């Protein structure tokens, strides 16, 4: 009997052991262990053009960004805003600019917008920001680079949800030091982890230092099991074109052929890659830009050198993106990281330096003469030099589109987008033409993180205007928008609506007509054919969408703006056609040799 009891005890013990072993080895793992949430890295370039990266038709060498495109998906119909801080405000809030505080850029707030909610010039307090929500969902949140959405202690990155940061609070500045642009604000402002810096690190160079700092942030928290969100807000390739000497001469002479040839070559590659459909035309060259063929060789070389420097800026940025990618591979985090790459607006075609410096005799002109005095081409790229590449090369960067930053033409608001990483079910290296918007990032990344926008618990929060890309990235749909959905924009008084294949835009003269123009941008991405007169019903229908947008977002058209005298400054707008006028293209007439003769005595 005792033996029987012992046997039963032993059997029970064995059963318990077996059950325990089974539980240890065969029980479902915790949800987080089953599917570790991905890291998220947003790589935002400043003023980079649609056609600059190799994977979007550019001749600029961007192997690291192109590798993300090869492993992920390229999106050709992605929209930002026409200038930097409005785009950044929607990226981090998911809310329209006229509600989130950047209804206008702080630098250009109009008198009739001053003091109006939504036009504060910084990311206002009525928002729940993306880093705040991701931090609450268990993510580390890091930022490096340009902020441009407020400088006061309650407006800086550390106050808006970033756990670690190394940030330039201004909209631009030197890449080498703290030199800013105006006499009233001569010194750029930086923060690190919520503290204002009195000086910059030794051997500071913006693109390199931002990358160094981000890598150190990631390493500091390695091993704690938490995913991270990194907002890599590069200053490059915004002017001034500052870069180390060994990056300045990688394209010597390559751009002497001129902007028209570069645009033609880029469009050809875009069609071959599938970025643009066969038959796509180039946008008309801006009427005030010369045909490079008629320029003297020395002029073409000097202007070409500016584009060489710009290309070097993009390549240097790509190099440091490669450093980040290599580090994530080294520490085993690359495969579990979503990368999102794009530029914040169209390429910069305006002369920002002239706008800042003003006229001779002014305070800012003197400041520029003292602090930005390195004007010799051999010094371009050094501290104290200021180079931008002008409207001709900005159009090349935005191939095949019309115009550039600041305007509502496609060249101002359409950007190249790359998304790669885990859970993307579309074919590697594929291209998608669905209609997308920068405000989509908030709902998309909240979904990735397994959290949601707290509108239900905080009803006073402004509504999100974006749509999650989840179904599209999963390969279930080709677009998250129907032909009835619309997108709308306004800044500096320029405005636009995109709905399906159609786009309605209103731009200040002479870049626009100071009236509504209508384009079918699916068939005419270069916006060469204004179809408003032929389609009055379509104009009327899209104006209903515009009025809805104005009402929903408290849009106040500015009484003043940066382009208010442009029509008087630029030559009268005329149509640009190849080979016209023939006068300047006609070569020397050479008579037949057999008919040559000396004068008779």
Report on the structure:
The protein is an alpha/beta fold. It has one domain: 3-Layer(aba) Sandwich (Alkaline Phosphatase, subunit A). It is 31% helix and 13% strand. It contains 17 helices and 15 strands. Strand 12 and strand 13 form a beta hairpin. Helix 8 (259-273) packs parallel to helix 12 (390-397). The longest helix is centred in the middle third of the chain and has 34 residues, at 297-330. It is globular and about 100 Å long.
Question: How is this structure best summarized?
Answer:
The protein has helices spanning 2-26, 31-34, 63-71, 84-93, 97-100, 130-136, 206-220, 259-273, 297-330, 352-357, 363-371, 390-397, 410-413, 441-448, 470-473, 536-553, 566-569, and strands at residues 39-45, 73-79, 140-146, 164-168, 190-192, 195-196, 228-233, 337-343, 414-420, 430-432, 436-437, 486-491, 494-499, 502-506, 516-520. It is an alpha/beta fold and 601 residues long. The strands form two sheets. Strands 1, 2, 3, 4, 5, 6, 7, 8, 9, 10 and 11 form an eleven-stranded mixed sheet that branches. A four-stranded antiparallel sheet has the order 12-13-14-15, covered by helices on one side.
């Amino acid at each position: 009997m005792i033996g029987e009891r012992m046997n039963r005890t032993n059997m029970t013990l064995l059963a318990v052991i077996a059950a325990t072993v089974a539980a240890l080895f065969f029980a479902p793992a915790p949800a987080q262990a089953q599917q570790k949430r991905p890291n998220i890295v947003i790589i935002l370039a400043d003023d980079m053009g649609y056609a600059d990266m190799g994977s979007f038709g550019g001749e600029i060498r961007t192997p690291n960004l192109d590798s993300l495109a090869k492993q992920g998906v390229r999106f050709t119909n992605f929209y930002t805003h026409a200038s930097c801080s409005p785009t950044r405000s929607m990226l981090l809030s998911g809310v329209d600019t006229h509600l989130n505080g950047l209804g206008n850029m702080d630098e250009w707030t109009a008198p009739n917008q001053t003091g109006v909610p939504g036009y504060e010039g910084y990311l206002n307090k009525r928002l729940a920001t993306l880093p705040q929500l991701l931090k609450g969902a268990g993510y580390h949140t890091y930022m490096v680079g340009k902020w441009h959405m407020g400088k006061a202690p309650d407006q800086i990155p550390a106050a808006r949800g970033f756990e670690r940061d190394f940030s330039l609070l201004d909209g631009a500045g030197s890449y080498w030091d703290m030199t800013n642009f105006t006499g009233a604000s001569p010194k750029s402002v930086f923060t690190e982890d919520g503290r204002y810096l009195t000086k910059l690190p030794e051997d500071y160079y913006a693109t390199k230092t931002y990358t160094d700092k981000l890598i150190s942030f990631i390493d500091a928290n390695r091993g704690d099991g938490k995913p991270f969100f990194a907002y890599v807000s590069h200053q490059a390739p915004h002017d001034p074109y500052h870069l180390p000497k060994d990056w300045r001469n990688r394209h010597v002479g390559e751009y002497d052929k001129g902007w028209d040839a570069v645009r033609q070559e880029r469009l050809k590659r875009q069609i071959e890659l599938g970025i643009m459909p066969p038959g796509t035309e180039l946008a008309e060259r801006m009427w005030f830009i010369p045909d490079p063929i008629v320029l003297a060789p020395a002029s073409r070389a000097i202007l070409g050198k500016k584009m060489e420097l710009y290309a070097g800026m993009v390549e240097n940025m790509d190099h440091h993106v490669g450093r980040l990618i290599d580090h994530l591979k080294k520490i085993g985090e690359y495969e579990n990281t979503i990368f999102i790459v794009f530029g914040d607006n169209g390429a910069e075609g305006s002369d920002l330096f002239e706008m800042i410096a003003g006229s001779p005799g002014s305070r800012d002109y003197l400041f520029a003469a003292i602090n930005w005095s390195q004007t010799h081409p051999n010094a371009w790229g050094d501290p104290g030099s200021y180079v931008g590449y002008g409207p001709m090369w900005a159009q090349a960067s935005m191939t095949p589109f019309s115009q550039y930053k600041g305007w509502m033409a496609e060249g101002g608001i359409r950007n190249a987008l790359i998304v790669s990483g885990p859970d993307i079910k579309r074919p590697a290296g594929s291209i998608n033409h669905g209609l997308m918007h920068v405000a989509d990032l908030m709902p998309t990344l909240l979904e990735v993180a397994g959290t949601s926008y707290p509108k239900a618990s905080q009803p006073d929060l402004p509504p999100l205007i974006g749509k999650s890309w989840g179904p599209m990235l999963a390969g279930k749909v080709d677009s998250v928008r129907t032909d009835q959905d619309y997108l709308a924009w306004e800044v500096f008084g320029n405005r636009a609506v995109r709905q399906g294949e159609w786009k309605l835009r209103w731009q200040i003269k002479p870049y626009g007509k100071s009236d509504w123009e209508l384009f079918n941008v699916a068939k005419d991405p270069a916006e060469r054919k204004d179809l408003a007169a032929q389609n009055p019903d379509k104009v009327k229908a899209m104006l209903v969408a515009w009025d809805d947008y104005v009402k929903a977002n408290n849009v106040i058209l500015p009484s003043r703006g940066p382009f208010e005298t442009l029509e008087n400054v630029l030559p009268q707008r005329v149509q640009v056609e190849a080979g016209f006028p023939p006068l300047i293209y006609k070569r020397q007439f050479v008579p037949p040799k057999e008919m040559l003769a000396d004068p008779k005595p």
